[in-house]
Design brief:
Number of domains: 1
Oligomer: single chain
Radius of gyration: 20 Å
Bound molecules: adenosine-5'-diphosphate, magnesium ion
Helix content: 25-40%
Strand content: 25-35%
Shape: globular
Number of helices: 9
CATH architecture: Roll
């Protein structure tokens, strides 16, 4: 997938989208409008229920524009408003930014703090050194001395002072990268826009960052969750009303170098790709929160996912570890349906 400069092999994404589509439109009732847009490289599935075709097309165009605008504003390595901000942060001086960018920064800061900064959108320098701010990361991994120098400066959003529409950083190592929350944020913006246009039943799926409102006709929306160890569906779940589901996986973007695989979710404490987790799925009422939390829980791993989920206000989550064991809270366990045979090994956690 792409958009918020998170790319993954297109073939895999198409495969996932096809599988999701199979699940979501198995009954093709008439008033379902579906469109897949490529918003500057991002595969976004839009499904609208009960909207006349012309109005549906216009709504899809409107949210395509939202995705494109957000994408160009926040791009981490092509010249964008974000790259301009990053160039100014190193000076330590205050500078003005597009006021539309403030809400995402404020949101990201709160989520970063709640996650003990395991979700840390201030580690842009580290991500750049790993090559994950580029179209095709391929290694080699950075020099260990470079990694330890970067992490010893502890850049976090706590260092970024927001005063009105002015920003300044008290730590010159701060470089922003919203790759772990931007896609979810864009989905929230799209859903708010659809609502404004009078749409009451919709699903927006930006390469696995999904939010639904209302219902798919007389039934809930049905979502497939990818098996992190294969190309099929691990589980399915029904969502309705207003819910988001996001999966972050270490298979989404990676490179192989000298016989080792390095994926794109970096543990800010070590400076290296997070260990021990294949994927995390989080449900929340908004997609930005679910997106940030899914990344944080990949970093937190089997030992800390439950504590960090609680701290971030997450009530439903599932982590799949390196061995394929599913660690899941009781509420999500009750509503999810595993589709593989045999079913995976499940470790039920205390309630979140
Ligand atoms: P995906 O849905 O592709 O699995 P995520 O939402 O987990 O993606 O975001 C991964 C992206 O976020 C990376 O490509 C990188 O740009 C950025 N990132 C990596 N590690 C972190 C981290 N610990 N905190 C915040 N952002 C991160
Ligand atoms: Mg994320």
């Amino acid at each position: 997938m792409y958009a918020f400069p998170r790319y993954s092999p297109l073939a895999t994404s198409y495969c996932l989208i096809l599988l999701l589509a199979t699940l979501s439109c198995s009954k093709q009732e008439a008033p379902l409008y579906q469109e897949q847009i490529l918003a500057l490289g991002a595969l976004v599935d839009i499904s609208l229920w009960g909207v006349k075709p012309e109005a549906a097309r216009q709504a899809a165009d409107a949210i395509t524009a939202d995705f494109n605008r957000i994408h160009t504003t926040w791009h981490a390595w092509k010249p964008s408003e974000l790259t301009r901000i990053n160039a100014q942060l190193v000076t330590g001086h205050a500078f003005s930014v597009n006021p539309e960018m403030i809400p995402l920064l404020v949101r990201a800061h709160a989520l970063s703090q709640a996650s003990d900064h395991l979700f840390n959108p201030a580690i842009g320098q580290l991500l750049a050194r790993w090559g994950f701010q580029g179209d095709e990361p391929k290694g080699p991994p950075p020099d260990p001395a470079v990694i330890s120098a970067l992490i010893s400066q502890h850049p976090t959003l706590d260092d970024v002072v927001i005063e009105g529409d002015h920003l300044r950083s008290t730590n010159r190592a701060v470089q922003l990268d919203v790759g772990a929350i931007g896609q979810g944020y864009a989905v929230d913006v799209a859903i708010a826009h659809l609502r404004k246009l009078g749409v009451e039943n919709a699903m927006v799926n930006a390469s696995g960052d999904i939010r639904v409102i209302g219902r798919h006709g007389n039934r809930p929306w049905r979502i497939g969750i990818r098996d992190p160890r294969g190309s099929g569906i691990l589980a399915s779940i029904e969502l309705q009303g207003d819910e988001s589901i996001v999966t972050s996986g270490t298979y989404e973007r990676y490179f192989d170098y000298a016989g080792k695989r390095y994926h794109h979710i970096i543990d800010p404490r070590t400076g290296y790709p997070a260990q021990g987790t294949l994927s995390v799925t989080v449900l929340a009422s908004d997609t930005a929160t679910a997106d940030a939390a899914s990344t944080a829980l990949v970093v937190a791993g089997t030992k800390d996912w439950h504590r960090i989920a609680r701290a971030m206000g997450i009530k439903q989550a599932m982590l799949i570890d390196d061995h394929g064991t599913v660690h899941i809270d009781p509420v999500l366990a009750k509503r999810i349906r595993f589709e593989t045979t045999p079913a995976p090994k499940i470790e039920l956690s205390p309630p979140l």
